[in-house]
Write a structure and sequence with these properties.
heterodimer; A: about 525 residues; mainly alpha; 3 domains; 4-stranded mixed beta sheet; 22 helices; B: about 350 residues; alpha/beta; D-Maltodextrin-Binding Protein, domain 2; 13 helices; 4 strands
C-alpha cells in the first residue's frame, strides 16, 4: 500500500510539472467558464435542422418562432415565383399552406405541421374552455389486472412522447470529463514509456501492479470527485451517481490502460483514443435511448442514470447487468497489463497483429500452459459478453434477415477467436509438444469459456431473458451439448492450424466459424 | 519550395506507413455510419409517423362500444387491425388467447367530453410501445371530436412528410461527416508537432534549410490532403446512398477549409504549448468554443454546409469565401508567431 501511495504522489507531481509553464490553471478555468456560458447561451438556439427551411408568410398567418424556419414576409405578387424558384420552401397564406411537390417542400410542410399544431394546441388551451378545447380523455387500465384502479386520465394532444433524450444527454455529461481524464492518464504512460522512465520504475522494488494502480489512483479520485460535482450540479443523489458511474469509469480506464501498452507514436495514441471514445460513446448512449422500449437498454449504465433522473427505482439485478461485466473487464485488464509491463514487451516494435500475438505469448504462463489457457478463456468472458451485447442490440434494431445472419457469424467469429488465439500462439512459437496436448488445451479452453459464460449469465441474463436471439448467443439449454460443441469447433481450428503448417490461422479460424454459425443457426431453429 | 514538398511527402508517407492509423480511420468511418443508422432507427421509433410510412405497424386492437366509427377509421388508416367485441370480457378473453394486444373501450353515448378506457398489457415495455403507436391516432381522434363540437383549430390537418430523418441527415450527419475529418486533421497536426518537440527532432530539422513556416506548413498541408480524401469518400458514399446533395464541389471545398482552419488552430496551439497533453486539451476546448461561438454569431460553417447541401438559393460562393477570409487571418497570425520563432 505504501508503494502505491508513493507512485500516486509521484504522478500528481508529474502532472503538476507538465502543466507548469505552458497553460496556467487560470487560463484553463477561464476557457472552461467561457464554454459553460456558451453552452448556456446555445441551449435554446441549437435544434435539429437549424435554419433548414425558408418560409414565406402573408395575410393572417400564425407567427412562426422556431430556429428551423427562416421566415420572410411576401405578398401575393411574388409568392408563387419565389416558391417556384426554390427561394422559398412553402408559403403560409392565412390558414392555407402552399407547397411544391418536391421532397424539400414536403419535409418543410411536415415540420411546419408539427410546429403549428403544437402552437394551436397551446392557443386553444389559453383561449377556450377546457372541455371545448380538449374533448377527449384517455384512462389507462391494466389488462392483466383489470380490477386495479386506472391511472389519472390524460389528454392525448397534451401528452409528450416519453423520449429520454434530455436525460440521456444529462447522463452523458458525466462521460465527457471521464474521457478527458483518461486521455491524460494515457499520456502519462506514453511519456514515461518514450522517455524510458518506466525502466527506472520497474527496476525499483515495486510490482507492476503497484505501478499501474498507483498511477491510476489520482485520476480515479479525480473522476469520482468530478462525478460527484456533476451530480451535485444536476441535483442527483451523490452516492447513487457514484455507484452508477464507478463501473463505467473503471471500464474506460481499463481501455485507456491498454492503449499505451500497444502503441508507440503519439498519432497512434490519438487515433486509438478517438476510436475508443466513439465506441464507448456509442455503446453507452444508444441503448439508453431505448430506455422505455427494450429491456436491452439496461446494457448501458446510462439507462440507470436516466432512471435515476426520473426518480424511478431499479433493482440490484438491473444494476449488476451493465456494471458487473465492466468491473470484471477492469480487473482482467489490470491483471493483463501487469503481466505486460516489462521492458521486453514495451520496447519491441511490431505491427499490431504481431504485437497482439506477442502480448498473448507474455500473458500465458509457459510452464503451466494448461492452466493459463483455461484461465484466459474464462477471464475473456466479460469482454466477449459486452461485445455480444453490442451484436445482439444491433441485430434486434435492424430486423433484416441478412443482418441476423451477419450477427450470428460475428458472434461465432468472436467466440472462436477468443478460444483459439492463445493455443494458436503456443503452436506458432513451438511451445506445444503433441497433437494430444493441443486437443487437451482445446478442451480446457472450451471448458473455461463455458464455465465463465454460465457464471455470468446466471447473474445477469435474466434481465434480457425475453430479448430475441439471447438464447442462441448465450447458449441456454443443456450443459453437455454446448460443451461438446464449443470443444469440437475449437479443436478443429487448432488442429487444422497445427497439423497443416501451410494453413494460415485465419483460414483455420474461418472453417471453425462457419461450423459454429451453422450450429448456432440450428439452435435458433425457427427464428431464421 | 522543394524542401517543403519533401517534408509534405515525408508526413504523408509516415501516415501511410502506420497502417494502424488508416485502419483507425476506416473503423471510425464505419462506426460513424453505423451509429447514424442506429440513430435513424431510433428516431423512427420515437417518431410514430415515420413508422407508419415505413409500414412496420403490426398491431391488433380490440374495440368495445357503440360509438367507435370515427376511431375505427383513424386506427385502420394507420394500418392497425381492428376487432370489434360486445363487451370487455370477450375482448379480454381474446387478449388471453393472443388474438389482440390491447383493448379500447369507448362510451356508448356521445358526451361533451369523451373518455376512452385504454387496457394495456402489464409488461411495461410492451405497454409503452403500444402507447407510442397509438399516440398519433388518438390525437387525430381528439381533433375529430373538436371539429364535431365546433371548436375551430387552424393547421391541424396539414399533411407533409415526417421531417425528422431529413433534418437529421442534412443538419447532423452531413456536417458531422465533414467536421470529423477536419477535427482529425487538427489532431494530426498537434500530435505531429508535439512529437517533434518532445523527441527533440525539431532542432535537427531546423539545421536543414527549412524554416519554421515550411515545417508547420507541410504538416498542415498533409493533414488537409488526408481530410479532403476522407470528405470525398463520405460525399461519394452519401451520393451512392441516393442522398440528394447540391453544390458538391463547394461542399468538398468546405471540408478542406474546415481542415485548414482546424489544422492552423492546432498548429498555433501546439507551437505555443509544446507538450501533447496541453496541446490536445486546449485544441479540443478552443475548437468547441469557436464552433459554438460561430453558431451564436449566425455564421456557423456547419449551417453553411447544411444549406449548401440542401440547395438553398441564398447560400453559395459568397459564404464559402467568408471562411477563406477567416482562414487567411488565422494563417497570418500563425505566420507572425512562427516568424518570431525564426528570429530567435
Amino acid at each position: 500500500m505504501r508503494q502505491i501511495w508513493t507512485i500516486a504522489l509521484r504522478e500528481v507531481l508529474r502532472v503538476r510539472r507538465r502543466f507548469s509553464g505552458g497553460v496556467s490553471p487560470l487560463f484553463v478555468l477561464l476557457l472552461l467558464g467561457a464554454l459553460g456560458v456558451l453552452g448556456f447561451l446555445l441551449r435554446d438556439s441549437v435544434t435539429l435542422g437549424y435554419g433548414l427551411y425558408r418560409v414565406g408568410v402573408m395575410g393572417d398567418a400564425a407567427e412562426i418562432r422556431d430556429a428551423r424556419f427562416v421566415v420572410t414576409p411576401v405578398d401575393a405578387s411574388n409568392a408563387d415565383a419565389l416558391l417556384a424558384q426554390r427561394a422559398l420552401d412553402l408559403v403560409v397564406d392565412g390558414a392555407q399552406v402552399v407547397t411544391r411537390d418536391d421532397q424539400k417542400s414536403q419535409y418543410a410542410l411536415g415540420a411546419l405541421k408539427r410546429y403549428l399544431s403544437k402552437q394551436t394546441i397551446l392557443e386553444l388551451a389559453a383561449t377556450q374552455e377546457m372541455t371545448r378545447a380538449f374533448p377527449l380523455r384517455v384512462q389507462v387500465y391494466d389488462l392483466d389486472a383489470p380490477q386495479q384502479a386506472p391511472s389519472e386520465p390524460f389528454i392525448p394532444s397534451l401528452r409528450t412522447p416519453p423520449t429520454p433524450f434530455g436525460q440521456v444527454i444529462t447522463a452523458f455529461l458525466y462521460i465527457m470529463p471521464l474521457t478527458f481524464i483518461s486521455i491524460f492518464f494515457t499520456s502519462s504512460f506514453m511519456e514515461e514509456k518514450i522517455k524510458r522512465r518506466l525502466t527506472l520504475l520497474l527496476s525499483a522494488p515495486l510490482t507492476p501492479f503497484q505501478i499501474i494502480i498507483g498511477k491510476m489512483l489520482p485520476y480515479l479520485v479525480f473522476a469520482v470527485l468530478m462525478t460527484m460535482g456533476i451530480a451535485w450540479l444536476t441535483g442527483a443523489p451523490l452516492w447513487l451517481a457514484v455507484a452508477i458511474y464507478m463501473p463505467t469509469s473503471l471500464f474506460i480506464f481499463a481501455i485507456y490502460l491498454m492503449v499505451p501498452l500497444f502503441y508507440r507514436t503519439f498519432q497512434d495514441t490519438t487515433f486509438i483514443s478517438m476510436f475508443v471514445t466513439t465506441m464507448t460513446a456509442v455503446y453507452l448512449v444508444f441503448p439508453a435511448m431505448f430506455a422505455d422500449v427494450s429491456e436491452l437498454a439496461y446494457m448501458s449504465p446510462l439507462t440507470l442514470a436516466v432512471k435515476m433522473y426520473r426518480g424511478e427505482p431499479f433493482g440490484v439485478q438491473e444494476y449488476l447487468f451493465p456494471s458487473l461485466p465492466m468491473i470484471l473487464v477492469f480487473g482482467v485488464t489490470v491483471t493483463i497489463a501487469a503481466r505486460l509491463l516489462h521492458e521486453e514487451f514495451l520496447m519491441t516494435y511490431y505491427g499490431i497483429g504481431r504485437k497482439f500475438a506477442d502480448a498473448l505469448y507474455w500473458i500465458i504462463d509457459r510452464r503451466k500452459p494448461a492452466r493459463s489457457i483455461f484461465l484466459m478463456s474464462f477471464a475473456s468472458i466479460p469482454a466477449v459478453y459486452l461485445m455480444q451485447l453490442v451484436i445482439l442490440a444491433v441485430a434486434s434494431n435492424l430486423p433484416l434477415r441478412a443482418l441476423l445472419i451477419a450477427a450470428l457469424v460475428a458472434s461465432a467469429a468472436l467466440e472462436e477467436t477468443v478460444k483459439t488465439m492463445g493455443i494458436a500462439v503456443l503452436i506458432e512459437r513451438g511451445e506445444t509438444h503433441s497433437l494430444r496436448q493441443i486437443v487437451w488445451l482445446a478442451f480446457l479452453s472450451a471448458l473455461g469459456f463455458l464455465a465463465g459464460e454460465k457464471l455470468l449469465t446466471l447473474v445477469s441474463v435474466s434481465v434480457v431473458s425475453q430479448a430475441f436471439l439471447a438464447t442462441a448467443l448465450f447458449s441456454g439449454g443443456l450443459l453437455l451439448v454446448p460443451l461438446a460443441a464449443h470443444f469440437s469447433f475449437t479443436a478443429i481450428i487448432v488442429l487444422l492450424y497445427a497439423r497443416f503448417r501451410r494453413v494460415p490461422y485465419w483460414v483455420a479460424l474461418g472453417v471453425g466459424v462457419i461450423l459454429h454459425t451453422l450450429y448456432n443457426a440450428l439452435i435458433l431453429g425457427g427464428a431464421l | 519550395m522543394r524542401p517543403f514538398w519533401a517534408l509534405l511527402k515525408r508526413e504523408l508517407a509516415s501516415v501511410a506507413r502506420e497502417r494502424t492509423i488508416l485502419i483507425a480511420i476506416l473503423i471510425q468511418l464505419f462506426i460513424a455510419s453505423f451509429s447514424s443508422a442506429l440513430l435513424l432507427g431510433l428516431l423512427s421509433m420515437y417518431d410514430p409517423e415515420s413508422v407508419a410510412i415505413s409500414g412496420r405497424v403490426d398491431m391488433r386492437v380490440g374495440l368495445v362500444g357503440a360509438q367507435v366509427e370515427a376511431l375505427t377509421q383513424i386506427l385502420e388508416a394507420r394500418g392497425i387491425q381492428i376487432t370489434r367485441f360486445e363487451n370487455l370480457d370477450a375482448a379480454r378473453a381474446a387478449y388471453q388467447q393472443g388474438d389482440v394486444e390491447t383493448v379500447i373501450v369507448a362510451p356508448d353515448a356521445a358526451q361533451a367530453v369523451t373518455t376512452l378506457q385504454l387496457y394495456l398489457p402489464h409488461l411495461e415495455v410492451r405497454a409503452s410501445a403500444i402507447q407510442v403507436v397509438l399516440q398519433e391516432p388518438l390525437k387525430q381522434y381528439e381533433n375529430a371530436l373538436r371539429v364535431q363540437n365546433g371548436t375551430p383549430a387552424r393547421y391541424m390537418d396539414l399533411k407533409g412528410a415526417p421531417p425528422t430523418t431529413f433534418e437529421f441527415l442534412y443538419s447532423i450527419i452531413l456536417p458531422v461527416l465533414l467536421f470529423f475529418p477536419a477535427f482529425v486533421a487538427g489532431n494530426l497536426v498537434a500530435d505531429s508537432l508535439a512529437e517533434e518537440f518532445e523527441m527533440n527532432t525539431l532542432e535537427t530539422l531546423l539545421t536543414t534549410p527549412l524554416t519554421w513556416g515550411s515545417i508547420v506548413g507541410a504538416k498542415i498541408a498533409a493533414a488537409i490532403i488526408l481530410a479532403l480524401l476522407q470528405c470525398a469518400l463520405w460525399l461519394a458514399l452519401l451520393s451512392l446512398n441516393r442522398t440528394e446533395l447540391f453544390n458538391l464541389p463547394w461542399l468538398l471545398v468546405m471540408g478542406g477549409l474546415l481542415a485548414a482552419m482546424f489544422g492552423t488552430l492546432a498548429a498555433f496551439v501546439a507551437v505555443t504549448f509544446k507538450n501533447r497533453e496541453q496541446a490536445q486539451f486546449v485544441y479540443a476546448l478552443a475548437l468547441m468554443g469557436l464552433v459554438g461561438a460561430s453558431f451564436l454569431a449566425g455564421v456557423s460553417p456547419l449551417t453553411t454546409i447544411s444549406r449548401l447541401a440542401i440547395g438553398d438559393v441564398y447560400t453559395g460562393a459568397g459564404n464559402v469565401l467568408m471562411f477563406v477570409g477567416v482562414l487567411l487571418v488565422m494563417l497570418f497570425i500563425l505566420a507572425l508567431t512562427l516568424r518570431r520563432r525564426d528570429a530567435r
